[in-house]
Amino acid sequence: MGAQRLLGALLFLGLSLAQGTLTLYTSEVLADVNALVEAFRREKPGVEVKVFRSGTGEVVAKVRAELQAGNPQADLLWFANEDFLKELASKGLLRRIPPTVPGYPVQYAPGGGLYHEVRLLYNVIGLNRQRIARPPALWQDLLRPEYRGLLAMPDPNFSGAALATVGTLGGRFGMEFFARLKESGLKVEQSNPVLQQKLARGEYGVAITTDFGLRQEIAKGAPLEMVYPRDGAILVPTPVAVPAWSKSPELASRFLRFLLSPEAQAIFAERGYYPVMPGAPRPKGAPERVVALQGHFADAATLERFNALFGLRR
């Protein structure tokens, strides 16, 4: 009877972990998230994955509002704002998930697994070849007179990647850099996808935007190319975390580990991202090595200065 009870318990445990509902709050591109969710559900057909997707700023605002109301809903958090995750961790609101996937580089799981990078994305310079004859090589090349009136970037109030652009380049060159870009006619679009589509149509000639999104537009036939600046593409932290309030922590942990599986890492590469797992394929046409600037998100004071400069309101 003891062995039968143990077997029954193990079967019940396996069944309970393979069923249930998982709620993901994310700023990632919905089509990319859906591809991963579908692959996960092929392995766990009894699992329902609910996704709330918006820009990082709106996702963070939603989590804050739910916490204030005492009713947080997300089982998984995945967006481009490492600083907010650090804030949650400091309050004991993140679960530590040990980085036990074989071969996973431990530097991608700070704090012993409070959150995990599952793929890498960079902010780079995107070009429409039909509008730009001479590509820039460095970030400060964007100040060339020939790019006047052709420049754009996403809104850092909405896009976490853009928040990293403001924090990183503002810290390196000073906010005067953005003031000079404003003088050159830099426009601010809401999001990277909107910006990339306008760049592909030729409404802009040069954009500060994400590398994976440019690859996706190029794969559709857009006349675009990307430049990884010689002084460093901005590596944007976009980690995944399981909050302490999760109603399905085991299922959330399984989904996190699935994102590091060969299948998921291959999906990332197919959709233009650099995988984090050693031996996983690179995106098509991507350089083997990238000179990287570690992204730093703009603080509230820096964001306020940027908003004042460009007439934006939060």
Account of the protein in words:
The chain is α/β, with parallel strands linked by helices. Strands 5, 6, 7, 8, 9, 10 and 13 form a seven-stranded mixed beta sheet that branches. It has a four-stranded mixed beta sheet with strand order 2-1-3-11. The termini are far apart. Helix 2 runs antiparallel to helix 11. It has helices spanning 2-18, 30-43, 56-69, 82-90, 110-113, 160-173, 176-183, 192-201, 211-219, 249-258, 262-270, 300-310; strands spanning 19-26, 46-53, 76-78, 119-120, 122-128, 151-154, 187-189, 206-210, 224-227, 233-235, 240-241, 274-275, 292-294. The chain folds into two domains: 2-119 and 238-275, Periplasmic binding protein-like II (D-Maltodextrin-Binding Protein, domain 2), CATH 3.40.190; 122-236 and 289-310, Periplasmic binding protein-like II (D-Maltodextrin-Binding Protein, domain 2), CATH 3.40.190. It contains twelve helices and 13 strands. Residues 1-17 have low confidence and may be disordered. It is globular, with a radius of gyration of 21 Å.
Quick summary:
With 314 residues, the protein is α/β, with parallel strands linked by helices. It is built from twelve helices and 13 strands. It comes from Thermus arciformis.
Describe the secondary-structure layout:
Layout: H1 2-18, E1 19-26, H2 30-43, E2 46-53, H3 56-69, E3 76-78, H4 82-90, H5 110-113, E4 119-120, E5 122-128, E6 151-154, H6 160-173, H7 176-183, E7 187-189, H8 192-201, E8 206-210, H9 211-219, E9 224-227, E10 233-235, E11 240-241, H10 249-258, H11 262-270, E12 274-275, E13 292-294, H12 300-310
Parallel strand pairs: 1-2, 1-3, 6-7, 6-8, 10-13
Antiparallel strand pairs: 3-11, 4-12, 5-8, 5-9, 5-10
